[in-house]
Amino acid sequence: MIVQPARRLDSVEEYYFAHKLREVRGLISEGKDVINLGIGNPDLPPSAQVIDRLRDAAADGTVHGYQPYKGIAELRQAMANYYLNTYNVSVDPEREILPLMGSKEGIFHLSMAFLDPGDEVLVPNPGYLGYASAARLAGASVRLYDLNEENDWLPDLDALEKTDLRRIKLMWLNYPHMPTGAVANSRFFARVSDFGARNGILICHDNPYSQIDNNEPLSIFNGGSMNNCVELNSLSKSHNMAGWRIGMYVGAEKYLKHVIAVKSNLDSGMFKATQLAAVEALTLPTDWHRSQSEVYRRRKDLVYHMLDSLGCRYSRDGVGMFVWSQVPDEIDNVEHFADSLLHEKHVFFAPGFIFGSNGKRYLRVSVCAADERIEEAINRII
Ligand SMILES: Cc1ncc(COP(=O)(O)O)c(C=O)c1O
Questions:
Q1: Which of 253, 281, 309 is where one domain is finished?
Q2: According to the model, what pLDDT value does residue 334 have?
């Protein structure tokens, strides 16, 4: 007997990385020394004081029960302080902050909370795959909007406004942008917020990279209005805590209450010791973030050298933990090129097509690997 999966699963594919990383693990089990420059999984550790806090908190006998759906008050306050200190944005920790288990789950919550079958969602091409998957799982349709180098990887809002937007309910934005590293400024955030207000669209900004190799971290609320914008943020990249699963929703209560309605039916709160350690992480000084960014910058210099020798084009102004690079014309299929580097040189890069058709001439190179590993990759490739 076989029980058929739900039809909603027809609309989502297995995450590219899930099957590619199986292939990588297969090579490793055959004894191949694969250098993974494909994924944005920080290899650097969290601050020692964060780990100490987790250990001490876990040893306290009173932390092991269920926790409030809204997170503990100390964590919401620490998140509000973080917004004030990092972005100069004031938020009410009682009503406008919701701790999440990573921003990925927030993408799903927002989609479940606001989308019905027949609704449409604006999703960036190229962009993070989670926005489209969550929309489809919620039964909505995806309308891709183009990002390209000529437009500095920013949406053409005037062109979008000439289209029929009546079914569009949410628009996903993500700056600093993954995979390109492009940034937006507060003027753009104000414009997109007005665009949302005029057209009845909730602007959902996903902001996990603002602290990585970036001199000017911005929130959508530097320009955008709480009336029709919400933001997701995350400690995964900014605090080297991807496996801890800590993120946050920031936005007006009128939207947050619907997110809680979904979330409270899915999980039963986050382990208190993790929340207390997250409080510690959120109080790390700017210098700590600066020191992490210096490591990434040094590694990017190595990657530039490698890309030069491959004849790739890239910008040195990209923010975040990736270098987005255009392959030379003589390489006609970037997926095959990435596969040949994986199988022949045992170096894994993410081909840009997986982030959308506008990425098909690009490779995304992660700097989440030690300098020596990147140097070794250079030796194998050059
Ligand atoms: C743009 C973007 N959004 C969200 C996520 C998910 O982050 P989190 O670990 O907070 O769920 C990622 C992770 O790679 C990402 O690149």
A1: 281
A2: 94
